[in-house]
Amino acid sequence: MNWTLALPEIVLALLGMAILVFGVLRKQDCFHLCSMLTIGAFVVTAALVLNGSGGLGFHGQFIADPFALFVKVLILATSGLGIIVSLDYNEHENLRRFEFPVLVLYATIGMLIMVSASNLMTLYLGVELNALAIYVLAAFARDDLRSSEAGLKYFVLGALASGLLLYGISLVYGFSGTMDFAVLADALADPKKVSAGLVVGIVFMISGLAFKVSAAPFHMWTPDVYEGAPTPVTSFMASAPKVAAMALFARVMFSPFGHLLAQWQSVLILISIASMLLGAFAAMGQGNIKRLMAYSSIGHMGYLLVGIAAGSAIGLRGILIYLVSYVFTNAGMFACIIGMRRGGRSVERIADLGGLGKTNPGMAAALTIFLFSMAGIPPFSGFIGKYFVFIAAVNSGLWTLAIIGMAASAVSAFYYIRIIKVMYFDPAAPRFDAQPASLSLVAGAGAIFTTMFFIFPAPIVAAAGAAAKAIFG
Amino acid sequence: MTDLGYPLLSLLTFLPLVGVAIILSVRGDEATGASNARWTALWTSLVVFVLSLVLWQKFDRSNGGFQFVESVAWMPEVGLTYKMGVDGISVLFVLLSTALTPLCILASWESITTRVRDYMVAFLVLETMMIGTFCALDFLVFYMFFEGVLIPMYLIIGIWGGPRRVYSAFKFFLYTLVGSLLMLLAILAIWNMTGTTDIVTLMHTNFPKSMQTWLFLAFFASFAVKMPMWPVHTWLPDAHVEAPTGGSVILAGVLLKMGAYGFLRFSLPMLPLASEYFAPVIYALSVVAVVYTSLVAFAQTDMKKLIAYSSVAHMGVVTIGIFTFNVQGLSGALFQMLSHGVVAGALFLCVGVVYDRLHTREIARYGGLAKIMPVYSLAFMLFTMASIGLPGTAGFAGEILVLIGSFKVNFWLALLGATGMILGAVYMLYLYRRVIFGVLNKPDLMGMLDLSAREIVVFAPLVILTLWMGVYPSSFTSFFDATVASLVDHHQAALAATTKLAGVVR
Predict the structure, then answer these.
(1) Per-residue pLDDT tens for B231-280?
(2) Could you tell me the residue ranges of all domains in chain B?
(3) Which of A249, A306, A391, B39 gets the highest tally of CB atoms within 10 A of its CB?
(4) A280 lies in which domain range?
(5) ipTM, 2 decimals?
(6) Domains contained in chain A, number
(7) Which of A462, A454, A229, A223 is nearest to B78 (CA)?
(8) Is it the case that residue B506 has pLDDT exceeding 50?
(9) How far apart are alpha carbons B250 and B175 in whole angstroms?
């Protein structure tokens, strides 16, 4: 039993408990201090991840491979950004409680476990640990009706999804007699011998996972929860957990069920098409920017699922590159959205951005970059992510997906550039309050990354390629 | 890297971004910022222009292949290299872009008064994208520049445009985007088949016939919108009318050429069979464009709109020339593109001059300007004549070559294409008569001043170019003669190979 493979997770968990105890014992307010400590814990964990060795641990329940390494570093970086953007918001909205970073930390542990799962039980454990922390985070503004509603809604629907997932797991276990990914892959090597019950189990699992990544038609919770949750929580929910769930989704589909591509591919294609189209069309009428981001993220999940549906190492590489681009663009975008505050009150209507190009050129320029990137306009990173995903679709002969994906891109470009129109072409709305340094930092870093990604994509493309090969052997 | 020892094309492409960095780094109040932005943009674009003259000087005119080639591995996993280079087709468009940009900046000197910094930044970014489009020798690099043009142009139309700017900016963006996305699909298909996006390699790749058809249609969607060809031209009049003068000049001068350049660079050499197969369709659409849009231009009451429709008609002549697949037609099309770049640009500047003074483009609001603006009338007349295609002006050589080329293909095609010249004379002279001649009886016209020194500086190079291109066209055609010849040979060889193959099969 090689437990040292899980050292990063163990250390992070211990640090989390230490920060929690520290926060409880220290009587005065220590939100900032705990946030900083949490970021420090992430840095330590990332260092451990990068220096860790590979292999199977805990009797094959836990795997550390280049794929897990890539995704874990991405998750830790994203969670760190998530904490930075929360600093100022929580300060202003009276949410300055040290539990916030600790909850983010525990959600992050859940994600790390998800990524390293090589057994259906570990998978479930990770998913639940992650979800539990996020249920609380969504309802973190407990005096706010919308936030409480968001938390409750997410909890009820999340429990339903967990049920679906668990039911799927039990069916898979019942029809194959194992929960171990490697053993499953061996047992399912011949698709002809697979019973229908097991395929039904897989479909249930796909439904549960599709809920976690908020892909249509399991997306219903997304707009409400995104709108209701405190904005930093929305920002967090839209990035790190999506990365983890998408990585888990890919590993489950490719590693134990890889031989059954023919059985599940059409389901994935359907979900992907539905998500891309829903993301493109439903976002159009939105006036609230958080709701719009919710639909936009559904669309992005659709593009990512194209990579899974492709069922190849190229597809997985596309997913990873897309995720890298997505999280940084997303972090920057939300840093700007959190910065939408007027007279001390947060505003979140798109119309509030009117004339931002005049009143706050820096923020407007950053938002423009993020929006063009999300629309997939070159040379921004979003284009490169999309390119790599669609390469995979074409390579696997999934022309329908590629064509619908392009069409959805064109439609979604409409609502992205509509926001740019509001910022630059419309008359000026009153100024926003001055930006705190933390938000400017994240927005600036996101903008630089998004703009400059195309210059040096080679290391990330190579790392993603190596990570994808780890799954496909 | 290159024979020169330094990467000239990359330098040309990215030098404007240095100007952007300077403009953005200077802080200060509105007025000093604006003045600084103007001068920085002007100097940057002039330096780029002077640097681009190295191309004019050092370009080997007897060589039909790519020159000044640079190549750096970019994303080797997907066979993607950053590759730049110019041949006879593209080199003059690079020069056209670098020459028009400083003129546009100068033309926007006083007419753009709000957010000057942003305007100049957008313009320099636009210059980078334009030069990059013409220099790129990798399909995906080309696509990135080609699409990247949308960003600054969308903002230029939307922020500094006329009353219906938002509608026009959206229409421009979405039309072009939809076309480009289909081209991206084609690029993916090509990559999937060949594993590379290198243009030089792809030019010598034989694609199967059925695939050529699909690829051609996808390219066509993108380039036809960009050109624009009838019936997907409707974004153009809107965009032209609403864009500020500088934006219109660049739109007409350079952006419209990107579509035709795409046909020449990609459709013809890569997809010879499909090009041959679809040529009649292109002829039909082009003839409709020539005749129909000329008639529409005649009916316009807005000066910019009239010139915009005339651009569609002129581009129709260009597509006829390209798809004749003979030396005369192709040379004519190239020359017509260049001359249209200069002349249409100049005509939009002419409209800009009177618009700056009276703030209307309504033709009926003018009349009798010859009396008070003699220099302006002279310049306007020269460009009108060039637009009509009068011998001795830039417009003549291109049109006559295209007509000769199309005569070789089909008499009726040539005849219908030639009506464009007649109709062009009708609507342009009608425009000129109504604006410049007639009785000067409108009181608000009386106080209009003739061209200022700055405007004369803007027009002088265009006048010289127009006459030079008309009187001695070979100093321009000599650039692309070798390339056009090899393009035609390549096309014939590809067709011959298929016929032979068909014979064997039979």
Answers:
(1) 888 888 888 888 888 888 898 889 889 999 999 988 888 888 888 889 89
(2) 8-505
(3) A306
(4) 3-472
(5) 0.86
(6) 1
(7) A462
(8) no
(9) 18
